[in-house]
Amino acid sequence: MQKILCLGEALIDMICTDKGTSLTHGVNFLKKPGGAPTNVAAAIAALGGQVSVAAMVGTDPFGDHLQNVLEKFGVDTTYLLTSPAHFTTFAFVSLLENGERDFYFNRGADAAFGLPQIEQIACQQFGIFHFGSATAFLGGPLQQAYNALLHKAQLQQAFICFDPNYRQLLFGKNQESFIEQSWQYLHACNFFKVSDEEALLLTQTQTLQEAVEIFQAKTTAVFAITLGKDGTLLRVGNHVQTIPSIPITPVDTTGAGDAFVGAVLYQLSVLDANTIHSLDAATWTSLVQKANKAGARTCEFMGAMEAFRYLNKEILA
Fold first, then answer.
1. CA distances from 41 to 31, 75, 206, 265 (A)
2. pLDDT at position 317, please?
C-alpha cells in the first residue's frame, strides 16, 4: 500500500447554532474540527489507508483537539506541527435568514507552515500527494510550502492530486490570483476534482460543456467534476461520461467532496505504484462509482468528521 501525504490547513470551524443570526449577534457555537486536506486525510484513514497530514496548529487546546481527532481515525500526525507563537486557525460561520453565510476567518498557525517545515518531511516515503488547501493561495509561508512540495512530488514522479476548494468568502477580492495559482496545479497534477461552480470559475466560461473542453485542451490529468445530485462527470483521456450519484436524503453535505477525494486516493493507494499513472477509463469509472458511495454516506450525517466515523472498506465494495 502506498503512503499518502495531505498538505494544508488544519482548523476549527465554529458553527453558529442560532438560526438566522449574524456572527455579531450569535451566542451559541458548535466546535467542529476541519480544514479540507485534514478532512481528506481523515476519510482516507477511516477507509484503511496509510496517510499523513502536514499542517500547523497552535499550542493550545484546539490544536490538541485536532491532533486527537486525527489520531483516533488513524492519521499519522508526525508532520502536524505546533507553533507556540500562533493560535490554531478558526473559521466562524453563521447561516442568515436569506440563505447567505456570515463568515469570519481568524487565521493563525496554518499560515506559518513554511519551507523549514517542508524540509522536515521525508517525501520519498510517499507515493501520493494531495494538495487541497483552501488557504494555501492566500500568500505567506504556506503558499511557499505548497509550491515547494509540488516541486518535490514532481521530481520523484509521485501521483499528484489537486482540489482547489474555492471559497468565495476568502477569495472574493482575489479571484484572479486564485485562478492563476490553481492552473499551476491543474497543469501539474495527475488527478483533480472540482465542483461545477469551480469548473466555470477556473475556465471563465458560462457552460459546463465549455469548461470541460478547456480542461481537456489544457490538461492531461484525469478529472472529476462533481454535479451534486446529478452525478460526477469523469474525464479520462478522450473519454468523458457522467456517473450517477447515489440516491439519498441528505442531512448535511459538509465534507462530501473531501470524502469523495479521500475514497479515490485510498483506492489508488492499494494499486501498484507503477500502474496508477496509466489506468484505463473502465478502472477510473469503478473508482469514481465507489467514491460516490463515500460522498453519499457522508451526506447522511451532521458534520464531516462525525460522518467519517461511518466510512469503511465495505462501503466501497
1. 19, 7, 33, 10
2. 81
